[in-house]
């Protein structure tokens, strides 16, 4: 007999009730391979190991039969609510069920006893072992078997249903500080587990049909990319959805509050963090692709907590705590050594908020938490241009990381679009100008001297990294990043792949740690490439590891680039990143902002912030940067200072500290062996104390010139000769300046081009041969 066994964990993105039901199927079909009938009995069991990570824990069980079904139920004798041991929940019940069919049999007892009886006799005794005990005491099993009789093939599949049920599923701390129990969404439709079991068993045929239809749709969408891509998305989809709990609250009247739906994500295989923001960011493409209505409920627990009085940090939190399924909030997101993930997580939240609204058309969260989002953007304005004291999603804390900086800049532009959606046009224009100015400065600092690739950190000429955060530019269609950057970076990846920098399972995250690969970031990076061959190679690296059986752990996201060994991240929902290419195919919809409650006379007051002051100062700060860059030019035209046009009224004073690009010691790439410091490692511009004092005095005495539109701005680059290499280069600041005039910007660009030409001449004179990158 040939046996066909199907393991089915349905994905039901359009039906939250079904998606929240924690049951899977095992189905079996048999057919004779010689044309002759054969006697067939089939058997399956589960063990009490499902119930605890502590094998000495005491368990109890029961068997229930009815005209419709038979099912076993087992649970701990002393369950511990919201507790895990070795990654296993201590408060659930496991169910093993089958519809009532001819020839059905069951038995509970010791594993060797029950399995031995079936092996010897082809039958079970329909008896229950009532000697409840520890899991490792005889390892009790719960078996269901069927005698199919003398057959040439099964008329219908034999179907077992397996479920692990927790109810309630989340303990959530509300903005008032109260602990709220949250329940699985299926409870809004089914009042008991027996009802759920009946629905699950009767729905198998339809569930299989829906699953087949969904798989066919995804396969059709992925087949145009590559076969390897089709294979990996089929693995990652269920893993991503398995990492979430769709929950609902219970009102004081005992009724389900279906308007209060919140989704919680566990950082599976790594730790117990609740709603880990960088993992949500990685997984976001799958939710955008299948059903963007998942996104807002995933963001809302974080936003609700961060808008409360219990959260006091100026940037977004990293998670809702590290004790899932308890989501109590996290007000201590500062890392060891004082570093923070402020830029990383604030930008993640802004990007996800806008992406969700564009895909679904639901702008309710944008309006409700506008002030909070604005405050995070102000933080990005101050900290993302030249990140210092910041930690990336990969745990890197190097100053001036280009990949982190670009995420922050995209986050600022995302806020511009959010402001536009909620009709805060002044904020929108200011944030857009800031993002544009920062982007120009980023290009002057992030690119290598030959303009062919993006460095890992400003000034580290031998470094490189996967610029996976460029994906957000494509996802949001912010168009901040030039097409030539995508093309040049693609060519650079091709050089790395063919030059020996890639390992067995792909390109490492960056040159600072050439041993670690992240499948989610490989997929984001692959999606940003402009060459199908490079894209498909990066995707194939992910498939190579997913199909490799030499290491333990279910489809991890982080592993060794050569051996494939993992220490964490197995079965992680971040594999939702596999859908990054498909998420770009989702059309944007018009964002609809719900009307304000009638009791509120105005929303302007509640959303008021210092956006105008901060961003206005930042945009104006580019004029100050241009003055620094062209200091000689400014001294030459000093007499014109008195002729500046004066605005009506007194100039506005902004009391905002500027941030700077502060060159710091960097770790050179392994291929750099010369002891000489490259020109690119020198700060492009420096400011002596005397110059700083002079400029400060001029700011105190002059009146503000009239700014010009941001659209006239061009690339802000470093040009003047440094007076002292110890002084920091000013990045576009948030204080006391204006947008540079076209005249200054034109001169600035010419000087920058001259500086690069002089660098090239100097290198040609000093070195015996033109410099080249040597791939290790």
From TrEMBL:
- Could you tell me which residue ranges the Glutaminase A N-terminal domain spans? 1-220
Q: Which UniProt keywords apply?
A: Membrane, Transmembrane, Transmembrane helix
Q: Cross-referenced InterPro entries, in alphabetical order?
A: Glutaminase_GtaA, GtaA_central, GtaA_N
Q: Where is this region: Disordered?
A: 698-737
Pfam families assigned: DUF5127, GtaA_6_Hairpin
Sequence ranges assigned to domain Glutaminase A central in this UniProt record: 226-581
Regions of compositional bias (Low complexity) in chain numbering = 710-729
Q: Which residues cross the membrane?
A: 614-636
Q: What is this protein called?
A: DUF1793-domain-containing protein
Q: Which organism is it from?
A: Wolfiporia cocos (strain MD-104)
Q: What is the lineage of its organism?
A: Eukaryota, Fungi, Dikarya, Basidiomycota, Agaricomycotina
């Amino acid at each position: 007999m040939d046996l066909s066994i199907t393991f089915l964990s349905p994905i039901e993105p359009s039906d939250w009730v079904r998606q929240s039901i924690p049951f899977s199927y095992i189905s079996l079909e048999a057919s004779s391979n010689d044309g002759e009938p054969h006697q067939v009995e089939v058997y399956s069991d589960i063990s009490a190991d499902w119930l605890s990570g502590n094998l000495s824990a005491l368990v109890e069980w029961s068997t229930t039969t009815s005209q419709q079904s038979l099912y076993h139920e087992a649970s701990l004798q002393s369950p511990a609510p919201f507790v895990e041991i070795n990654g296993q929940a201590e408060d659930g019940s496991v169910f093993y069920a089958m519809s009532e069919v001819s020839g059905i049999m069951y038995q509970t007892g010791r594993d060797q006893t029950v399995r031995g009886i079936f092996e010897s006799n082809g039958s079970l005794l329909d008896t229950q072992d009532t000697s409840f005990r520890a899991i490792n005491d005889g390892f009790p099993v719960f078996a269901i078997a069927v005698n199919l009789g003398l057959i040439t093939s099964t008329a219908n599949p034999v179907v077992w249903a397996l479920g692990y049920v927790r109810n309630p599923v989340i303990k959530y701390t509300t903005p008032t500080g109260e602990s709220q129990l949250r329940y699985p969404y299926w409870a809004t439709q089914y009042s008991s587990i027996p009802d759920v079991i009946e629905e699950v068993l009767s729905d198998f045929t339809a569930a299989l049909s829906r699953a087949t239809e969904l798989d066919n749709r995804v396969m059709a969408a992925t087949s145009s990319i590559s076969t390897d891509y089709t294979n990996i998305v089929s693995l990652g989809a269920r893993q991503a959805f398995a990492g979430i709990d769709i929950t609902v609250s219970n009102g004081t009247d005992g009724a389900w509050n279906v308007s209060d739906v919140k989704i919680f994500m566990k950082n599976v295989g790594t730790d117990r963090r609740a709603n880990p923001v960088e993992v949500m960011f990685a997984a976001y493409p799958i939710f955008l692709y299948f059903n963007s209505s998942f996104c807002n409920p995933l963001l809302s627990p974080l936003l609700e907590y961060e808008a409360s009085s219990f959260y006091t940090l100026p940037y977004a939190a990293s998670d809702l705590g590290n004790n899932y399924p308890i989501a109590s909030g996290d007000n201590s997101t500062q890392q060891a050594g004082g570093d923070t993930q402020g830029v990383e997580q604030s930008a993640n939240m802004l990007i996800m908020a806008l992406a969700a609204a564009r895909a679904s058309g639901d702008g309710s969260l944008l309006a409700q938490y506008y002030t909070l989002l604005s405050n995070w953007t102000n933080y990005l304005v101050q900290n993302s241009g030249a990140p210092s004291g910041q930690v990336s999603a990969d745990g890197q804390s190097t100053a001036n990381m280009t990949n982190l900086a670009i995420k922050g800049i995209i986050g600022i532009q995302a806020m511009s679009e959010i402001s536009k959606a909620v009709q805060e046009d002044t904020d929108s224009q200011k944030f857009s100008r800031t993002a544009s100015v920062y982007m120009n400065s980023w290009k002057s600092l992030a690119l290598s001297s030959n303009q062919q690739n993006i460095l890992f950190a400003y000034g580290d000429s031998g470094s490189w990294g996967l610029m996976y955060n460029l994906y957000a530019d494509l996802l949001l269609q912010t168009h901040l990043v030039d097409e030539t950057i995508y093309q040049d970076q693609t060519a650079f990846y091709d050089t790395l792949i063919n030059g020996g920098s890639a390992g067995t399972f792909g390109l490492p995250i960056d040159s600072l740690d050439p041993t670690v690969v992240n499948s989610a970031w490989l997929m984001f990076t692959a999606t940003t490439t402009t060459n199908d061959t490079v894209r498909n190679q990066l995707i194939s690296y992910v498939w190579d590891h997913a199909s490799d059986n030499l290491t333990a752990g279910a489809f991890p996201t982080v592993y060794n680039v050569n051996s494939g060994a993992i220490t964490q991240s197995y079965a992680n929902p971040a594999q939702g990143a596999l859908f990054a290419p498909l998420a770009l195919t989702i059309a944007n919809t018009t964002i609809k902002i719900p009307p304000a409650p009638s009791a509120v006379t105005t929303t302007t007051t509640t959303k008021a912030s210092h956006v105008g002051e901060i961003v206005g100062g930042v945009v104006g700060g580019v004029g100050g940067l241009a003055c620094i860059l062209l200091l000689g030019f400014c001294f030459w035209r000093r007499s014109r200072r008195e002729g500046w046009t004066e605005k009506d009224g007194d100039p506005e004073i902004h009391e905002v500290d500027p941030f700077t690009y502060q060159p710091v010691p960097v770790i050179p790439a392994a291929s750099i062996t010369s002891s000489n410091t490259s020109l690119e490692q020198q700060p492009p511009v420096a400011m002596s104390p005397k110059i700083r004092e002079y400029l400060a005095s001029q700011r105190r005495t002059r009146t503000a010139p009239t700014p010009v539109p941001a659209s006239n701005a061009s690339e802000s680059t470093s040009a003047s000769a440094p007076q002292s290499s110890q002084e920091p280069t000013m990045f576009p600041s948030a204080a006391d300046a204006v947008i540079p005039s076209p005249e200054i910007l034109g001169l600035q660009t010419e000087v920058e081009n001259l500086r690069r030409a002089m660098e090239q001449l100097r290198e040609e004179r000093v070195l015996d041969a033109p410099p080249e990158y040597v791939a290790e």
